[in-house]
Amino acid sequence: MAGKDAKRVTTIQVAALAGASPSTVSRALSGDPRITEATRQRVLAAADELGYRPNLIARGLKNRATGIIGVVVTDLGSFYHAEALRLLVDELGENGLAPLVFACHARQSADAVIARMAGYQVDAVIALAAPFDREIVASCDRSRKPLVLMNRYPGPEPVSTVGGDFDRGGALAAGHLIARGARSFAYFAGEDGAQISRDREAGFLRRLAEDGLGCRARISSVYSYDAARQAAAALLADPPDAVFCANDTLAFALIDAARHDAGLRVPGDLMVAGYDNTTLAARPSYDLTSIDQDLPELVARAVRRARALAEDPAAAPVQDVVLPRLVARGTTERPPAMET
Amino acid sequence: MAGKDAKRVTTIQVAALAGASPSTVSRALSGDPRITEATRQRVLAAADELGYRPNLIARGLKNRATGIIGVVVTDLGSFYHAEALRLLVDELGENGLAPLVFACHARQSADAVIARMAGYQVDAVIALAAPFDREIVASCDRSRKPLVLMNRYPGPEPVSTVGGDFDRGGALAAGHLIARGARSFAYFAGEDGAQISRDREAGFLRRLAEDGLGCRARISSVYSYDAARQAAAALLADPPDAVFCANDTLAFALIDAARHDAGLRVPGDLMVAGYDNTTLAARPSYDLTSIDQDLPELVARAVRRARALAEDPAAAPVQDVVLPRLVARGTTERPPAMET
DNA sequence: TCTTCTTGTGCATACGTTTGCACAACTGAT
DNA sequence: ATCAGTTGTGCAAACGTATGCACAAGAAGA
């Protein structure tokens, strides 16, 4: 091949061409004010001519800061997580950071994932993998890596989090369903251990109770469409007026089960509200009422926090909460029956 | 904080504890056969006790191989790309590689993205960003980074690609629609420059021609749901029997436009087939007939190719093609009219 | 006992940066 | 012309790892 073993361009080469030393090159490029404008220009010209690109690995080794942020996700099959990752990648990119992405699930333990990230000297870790939060916290602690948990309601652990106000979100949903005329309710919970799901449920129940109402039924399922659709059957044998779901995935599964498996109309026979306001929720085939978390804002704050922690790992943890907002759509329209 | 400035554990510390030298530690951990079993055990014990994790950045600097693979994506909003990224992350992880992910779109030029990746000394780049392929090829060439283009039909450029057989896929769709009784056809193309879309179209038209049929209409749109749904209106004023769409996103938009904007039944008034067999296609609300690309296989091959190129950057480019498969679903059922 | 070979370990260096420190060159004052 | 002060540049060390080479220790043969 032509330039197969063409020497890579380093500060040394640039220095040689510019008639300066590597240190001068380094300083010129980093904008050190002690370098004469004339020299800087010479160096810049040389760097440009050779197509010099600083070796960020070497810089990372020296500086003990790589500009790499570890991102842990668990279930990219979920549209919500996919959307979050997309925003994260963009936001990190615009902040001059580079995301090193790993997935964490049954076959890939949280500890192994964090260990690998730590090996790559990531400056901080952002985790979007609720089911593994506890292990991730422990593992980051052990590796002394700053950590930001995303999409997580504040808890007792001393760790930085960024999330929506789940309790309030649950309450919003309850209020809305009540206002739309529902009188019997059910909650569709996520996997049993999920803190997220329990926080949302708590708010939902609390708001119902304020109006002297209770929750007639409760089912739960793993956060997967197929599992959820199966689980939904139990509820649809004797459906309530309205169901609040721990997230949109569960809501979509419930709606499909209602419409296609149980022959119910949504809305009409059943109102459904979800959580996350996924892209899909806005499409006419679902037209799902959902609690919006302002994901871009969440992501922006997570990145800001990660930067701050990378800067000063000893900083006290901050638990950041974003206010949720209800987006009313077709699945919670008043049943046509009430209009006649 | 307690261990704030606890020295990081390096080979030096391990060596000291094991009563050996750093070089011995390195060799013991890398399984060099020249090291005595006894020594190896001592080293392993020491490493374990101190919780030693090799610094992969330092290793990368020394070895000129980081184990990092650059991944370029463009539109994570698309479910197809999100799914592909999920599989990529898993596959790379299982191969002991780490994906450094960047998005490339209007605000982030391909060249800037590749330059940053090159700065991080990625061993190879996998690109899933068809619209930017040309610039990416040029940029990787300049940085001498091995490149694998994903989801790309073989072209004249000397670059490694992994993709489905788009031409054949288009033909499959045509054959299926003909068999289902359609007699007038339309093609819903992606953005005009998109090679992908043109390859699929070519196969579609060729197969139609084999039966003496033609394509009555053709519309095109950017690959975004909203834009596509608007663009679809033009076609639905005078709908053909069947529409083949360059990908599922376009198909979903078309279906929604037909059902909710134009008041048509799908199927019934209109058959629709898509491409990619996205998760969503299987759900009852769309139940979309689509061409499946065997994405997991595509991804596995891309990773394999990337590893090979990382090993030997001078290796000749390989253009890898996976056979597509048609998955027939509800949107191409025979119109009920024909059953009565 | 003295080579000769084998075997296992340590020394030193290199990877490409950044940066503390010393130093050369120049200015302006005595 | 000498000195203090300023300014810009270079030297060398460090980050943590991997590895060619030299070397010490022990075994085997003469």
| Distance between the ends of chain A | 79 Å
Kindly report the name of the CATH homologous superfamily of the largest domain in chain A: Response regulator
How many strands of chain A?
A: 12
Order of helices and strands of chain A: HHHHEHEHEHEEHEHEHEHEEHEE
Q: Specify the helix fraction band of chain A.
A: 40-55%
Computed CA radius of gyration of chain A, to the nearest angstrom: 26 Å
Q: Give the biggest beta sheet of chain A.
A: 6 strands, parallel
Oligomer: homodimer
Using the alpha-carbon principal axes, give the shape of chain A.
elongated
Q: Residue ranges of chain A: pLDDT <50 for 5 or more in a row? A: 1-5
Instruction: Give the C-level CATH assignment of the largest domain in chain A.
Output: Alpha Beta
> What is the architecture of the largest domain in chain A at the second tier of CATH?
3-Layer(aba) Sandwich
Q: Which chains share the greatest interface?
A: A-B, 56 and 57 residues
| Residue share in β-strands of chain A | 15-25%
Order of strands across the biggest sheet of chain A? 2-1-3-4-5-11
Structural class of chain A: alpha/beta
Number of domains of chain A: 3
The mean pLDDT of chain A is: 91
CATH topology of the largest domain in chain A: Rossmann fold
